[in-house]
Amino acid sequence: MKMLGILKHSIRYCRRPVAANLQSTIGSTNSNKRTLDGQLDLRCTHVRHVHDDAKRVAEHESVIFRQMFDGETYTYTYLLGCPETRAAILIDPVYEMVDRDVKVAEEMELDIIYGLNTHVHADHVTGTGKLKELLPRFKSVISKSSGAKADIHLEDGAEFKFGNQCIKCLSTPGHTGGCMTYVLPEHAMAFTGDALLIRACGRTDFQEGDSGKLYESVWRKIFTLPNHFYLYPGHDYRGFSRTTVAEEKKFNPRLTLDKEKFVQFMKELDLAYPKLIDKSLPANLKCGEISKEAILGSEDVLSHMGNH
Amino acid sequence: MKMLGILKHSIRYCRRPVAANLQSTIGSTNSNKRTLDGQLDLRCTHVRHVHDDAKRVAEHESVIFRQMFDGETYTYTYLLGCPETRAAILIDPVYEMVDRDVKVAEEMELDIIYGLNTHVHADHVTGTGKLKELLPRFKSVISKSSGAKADIHLEDGAEFKFGNQCIKCLSTPGHTGGCMTYVLPEHAMAFTGDALLIRACGRTDFQEGDSGKLYESVWRKIFTLPNHFYLYPGHDYRGFSRTTVAEEKKFNPRLTLDKEKFVQFMKELDLAYPKLIDKSLPANLKCGEISKEAILGSEDVLSHMGNH
């Protein structure tokens, strides 16, 4: 009970297995009372532990994290912040969404100092140029092998730091020649760009795309991360927000093919959508909708190959 | 070092504050080597701690959680699972997305036994009816005060359990007469439905909507949760995925008004969009786009009131 006095927002919680309650109405004789300090009483009746709220805060704030979406191009932008120094980064910012990103970072008292691109995007304009104009300290970051201009270039195996946070850089080419996966080992998170999408992957038919290389990148780099690591993709077209290494190893309909079949699949996908290449290029055109068709339509190609 | 031998995916990580590295190219002399068991070596050079990977897995799996989006109606559906019993729930499933939700739950070896609606939706058809057809054990759940048909009705203060997980139910009327916020105290999460949206709130001009009641619900219930609790809304129209109690208390442009001004604002919002009422009703019409206009357009109303 001493802990309850120390913690401002003390909460008890239930952990005991309880059979599904199938009463038609579930009420409470203790209907939302308040604790002595005016907080809502969130205790559940089957109390086993006193919740260490201070620990929970620390855990939740070990890294500040927000996933943000651009519905026009189906692009995810990630805001990551160091809770101690307030230094922050954006991964794959979108030009049109920069004002939103800067505003929310300001409100969260975060100082965006880097913008990391996972690769040279072909389906949306990166926000890093606009961010450089808006924020005097801001630096753009991309892989050296991308061949793109940037303030900082990263090589395979590099460690990149913001505040007290550490990112490990994995070169994962195949979608483009310079794709990079950014891993936060401490937080069991990896940002895969278009190398690996949820139950899908990026196309490989332009920008030094190479389906054999992509297959190796995914299996030798991303899929050798621990099974429980969360994977956050560059895009999603079906409303998913994250996946895990374990899930994609087992259920990604493309990457669970053997290498030869995967290469064949990626080739047939292009044959099925020949107009996409012209429409996706040049870089920086907004072709999110077209990508959506390519992802959703891939099930037809897979079914021809007997995968479904 | 003994711990390293025990843990399969042992990772070291860096916590020491490191000045921003502004070298133009950041490489590594230890480019993605592998550990003895074939895992990628994710160590950062400034090692302070040996990462307790087993603890991290336990932390990550204290509740299974996926946020899913329906781009047609801008609705978030939440899949929550008990890692021990595999019992799972969906909060606010959308009719058209049920097949997606059921498939991903199957792949994650989760057994969806309940579908909880935060309220009677007017902008999309709930998926709970379809889920009852697909899953024999599935039960629909909603507040008693909603007046809606369901297998289980909940009252303010009720505790609702799935597997070893416990949800505390907070009655938060105002958007509709029967709105419920579902809180997982152990995981510092609350699902607010349309009572509170990120930097916004649900409309209050139909279905027993009452802006005075909504104001009280938010301030007396949602905003008295601990500051660090994550809030997950029923919709978002700008690409945000979550917020915190602290942020909304400070930056929600509507709820930071005093009560009188808030009521006036909600009234003026309707006057500015009179056609919305007819289009939003009857219930179950898909009016996501219209809601989007109402949210985005609210900045004009606020600016007239001198709030911006």
TrEMBL record, chains A, B:
It comes from the Eukaryota. Residues 74-235 form the Metallo-beta-lactamase domain. This is Metallo-beta-lactamase domain-containing protein. Keywords: Metal-binding. InterPro entries: Metallo-B-lactamas (IPR001279), Mito_Persulfide_Diox (IPR051682), POD-like_MBL-fold (IPR044528), RibonucZ/Hydroxyglut_hydro (IPR036866). PANTHER family: PERSULFIDE DIOXYGENASE ETHE1, PERSULFIDE DIOXYGENASE ETHE1, MITOCHONDRIAL. Pfam families: Lactamase_B. CDD domains: POD-like_MBL-fold (cd07724).
